[in-house]
Specification:
- By secondary structure, this protein is α/β, with parallel strands linked by helices.
- The chain has a single domain, classed as TIM Barrel (Alpha-Beta Barrel), CATH 3.20.20.140.
- It is 42% helix and 15% strand.
- The chain contains 9 helices and 8 strands.
- The chain has helices at residues 18-27, 43-52, 72-84, 104-121, 133-142, 157-165, 182-190, 220-231, 235-250, and strands at residues 2-4, 30-36, 56-60, 89-94, 125-128, 148-151, 168-172, 196-198.
- It has an 8-stranded parallel β-sheet.
- Helix 8 (220-231) packs across helix 9 (235-250).
- The longest helix is centred in the middle third of the chain and has 18 residues, at 104-121.
- The protein is globular and about 45 Å long.
- The two termini are 13 Å apart.
């Protein structure tokens, strides 16, 4: 049994064969797929996917790369969505200091407001932290939440320890499969066993054997196999520990 803690199964890349993608994931032992939104415009698509496919569970939030088109009433809509529709987390939210051009102040505004909503609803958060780990940690200390997952983690060991202290798990996926990703591989091999979860970020961050083609949740089993190799343990151990970790932080 595996849990994909981050998969955009509602994305247009899956429109032609979403049923088949889902079935392949289930056949590969993926028992739960967390589907986060990225903006108000796809709240409905995420909800629809989660109604259609029993293994899918929703998270709702506004991604930092979508704040430019966000409006204040999107936060009101997010609160309404959380009241009306089951959700395991607020996400995908956070900061992105990589893509240019960007409005860091606007990103921080929507991040903080959504941390407040997470506190209001007592929900964990799914964090986007690209090139912005310290800035994200700073806001988490100001606005503590139930915990959550630092998605596609690529920070330092020290930063990882800070996330762990705040009740977060660290998401590992396709980036870890590349032989030259030495930092991520070292972290994957040595992080405390109760701190890691698995993800695909499908259709993005394809593993080395799939790149540059579309990623999908069914690849999680091979990603888990590689993690087991890096940690020097069995596939079954990795499946068990990452599943328990995901369940503990997302209250599945």
């Amino acid at each position: 049994m595996l849990i994909d803690t981050h998969c955009h199964l509602d994305a247009a890349e899956f429109d032609a064969d979403r049923d088949a993608v889902y079935e392949r994931a289930v056949q590969q032992g993926v028992a739960t797929i967390i589907v986060p939104s990225v903006e108000r415009a796809n709240f409905g698509a995420v909800a629809s996917v989660c109604r259609t496919y029993p293994a899918c569970k929703a998270a709702y939030g506004i991604h930092p790369l979508f704040v430019k088109q966000a409006r204040e009433d999107d936060l009101t809509a997010l609160r309404a969505m959380l009241k009306e529709t089951p959700a395991l987390a607020i996400g995908e939210i956070g900061l992105d200091h990589f893509v240019e051009p960007r409005d860091e102040a606007l990103q921080e505004y929507y991040f903080v407001e959504q941390l407040k909503i997470a506190r209001e609803f007592d929900l964990p958060v799914l964090l986007h932290v690209r090139r912005a780990v310290d800035a994200v940690l700073r806001q988490l200390r100001r606005y503590p939440v139930r915990g959550g997952i630092a998605h596609a983690y690529n920070g330092s060991r020290q930063q990882a320890e800070e996330f762990i202290k705040l009740g977060f798990k660290l998401g590992l996926g396709g980036a870890m499969t590349f032989p030259r990703a030495l930092k991520i591989r070292s972290l994957a091999a040595t992080l405390p066993p109760d701190s890691i979860v698995l993800e695909t970020d499908a259709p993005d961050i394809s593993p080395v054997w799939q790149a540059p083609h579309r990623n999908e949740p069914g690849e999680l089993s091979r990603i888990a196999t590689l993690l087991a190799e890096l940690r020097g343990c069995s596939y079954e151990e990795v499946a068990q520990l990452t599943t328990l970790n995901a369940k503990s932080v997302l209250l599945i």
